[in-house]
Write a structure and sequence with these properties.
The protein has 368 residues and is α+β, with helices and mostly antiparallel strands. It contains nine helices and 19 strands. The strands form six sheets. A six-stranded mixed β-sheet has the order 4-3-2-1-5-6, sandwiched between helices. It has a three-stranded antiparallel β-sheet with strand order 7-10-11. Strands 8-9-12 form a three-stranded antiparallel β-sheet, with helices on one face.
């Protein structure tokens, strides 16, 4: 894997050189991990004339959750606990002969930006922008393999919950159990805060679990994901509790299912982000639910659970192959409940079988 990280850093160095900067400072944690393989919390990565250096407030602990640092990188352990790696990097860049330094302004605070200027007043600071995030959009097969395992863990955790007794248990209890099961099956932890929504709460995106207890006849919406070696997936499903679904529940579920299928089928290389969103949104909007829809139908996943691209009405850009995204339409009817169906998929060309579905738990409307 060292060669992979070296190639990634080389691509970033080339982009910096193209805009006249011989050095770059990466501080956003997911970007540091992407380029370094792993790093203790708070670390930053300096790419400069003197070589690539990982500046860290503490030595790597070997914790799998932090990843494994590329052995080709030089480590610089800051003395004491008060040193700021960003400021130390600016000082090191100056001493290495750099005249300019590209930084992630969208991640740095104003105070840290000023502190860099105080220790290196002659160092010209430029904006690196979202260059690393753009490099991260298309995944290599090793990254996709991690996402595939994360999805398998998530499917296992959800499948086990569905075999247990649910009536009478609280949303909060079920969410905690799901997160425990993720870890039991090999996850580093949940990819995000698990959402469990019942009855009138169902169908809401990222509902925060409450003390409401599951009742017969409820819709139960669950959204969860595993974090495996830093890579995060997402799945969302909706079920009916303990009885034959009512007519309105079947009708709403079939509508959201059709919308989600339309979005999945639109995932082809070259498709515009907005067209994927439109494919799913059109059916829900035509059925009169347009006013309550989320501002996006899906998003990219990887080292973060919500990254580029965004599948939204005003999104600019087109899909490439090997881009993992979610497709997650949902409808919530205030006071009644709703349906949300969410999958993680990888964009593939038709010659390779079309979009690869990573989350495979059934989308049939089950009565649990």
């Amino acid at each position: 894997m060292s060669e992979v990280y070296a190639v990634r850093r080389g691509l970033l160095r080339d982009r910096c050189a193209a805009v006249g900067s011989a050095a770059a400072l990466v501080s956003r944690p997911a970007n540091v991990r992407y380029l370094a393989g792993g790093a203790p919390p708070g670390s930053v990565l300096l790419l400069g004339p003197g070589g690539d250096v990982l500046l860290t407030p503490r030595a790597p602990s070997g914790d799998p959750a932090d990843g494994r640092t590329d052995e080709q990188l030089r480590l610089s352990l800051l003395p004491g606990s008060d040193g700021d790696p960003v400021v130390a990097a600016a000082d090191l860049a100056t001493s290495s002969g750099a005249e300019s330094l590209a930084v992630e302004e969208h991640h740095l605070t104003v105070s840290r930006h000023r502190a860099m200027g105080s220790v290196a007043p002659r160092l010209r600071l430029a904006d690196l922008g979202a260059t690393v995030e753009q490099l991260r959009v298309v995944k290599d097969e090793e990254e996709i393999a991690c996402l595939r395992i994360a999805a398998e863990i998530t499917d296992q955790a959800l499948g086990e919950l569905l075999e247990s007794i649910l009536v009478g248990r609280t949303e909060r209890h079920l969410a905690l159990e799901l997160e425990r099961r993720l870890v039991d099956h090999g996850a580093d932890g949940p990819a995000f805060a698990t959402s469990v929504a019942t009855g009138p709460n169902s169908g809401q995106g990222r509902h925060r679990p409450s003390d409401r207890r599951v009742e017969e006849g409820d819709f139960l919406s669950v959204c969860l994901g595993a974090n495996y070696r830093g890579y995060r997936c997402e799945i969302g499903r909706t079920f009916v509790i303990g009885t034959t679904p009512a007519d309105w529940q079947i009708e709403l579920y079939d509508l959201v299912f059709a919308a989600q299928r339309a979005g999945r089928e639109a995932l082809v290389p070259g498709a515009a982000y907005r067209d994927v969103d439109r494919a799913a949104r059109y059916l829900l909007d035509s059925a009169g639910h347009g006013g309550g829809l989320a501002p996006w139908t899906g998003h990219g996943v990887g080292l973060e659970i919500d990254e580029d691209p965004q599948l939204a009405p005003a999104a600019m850009g087109k899909l490439d192959a090997c881009v993992p995204v979610t497709v997650e339409p949902g409808v919530h009817l205030p006071g009644r409940g709703g349906v949300r169906i969410d999958d993680t998929l990888v964009v593939r060309p038709e010659a390779d079988g079309g979009p690869e579905l990573l989350t495979i738990t059934t989308k049939e409307l089950l009565a649990l």
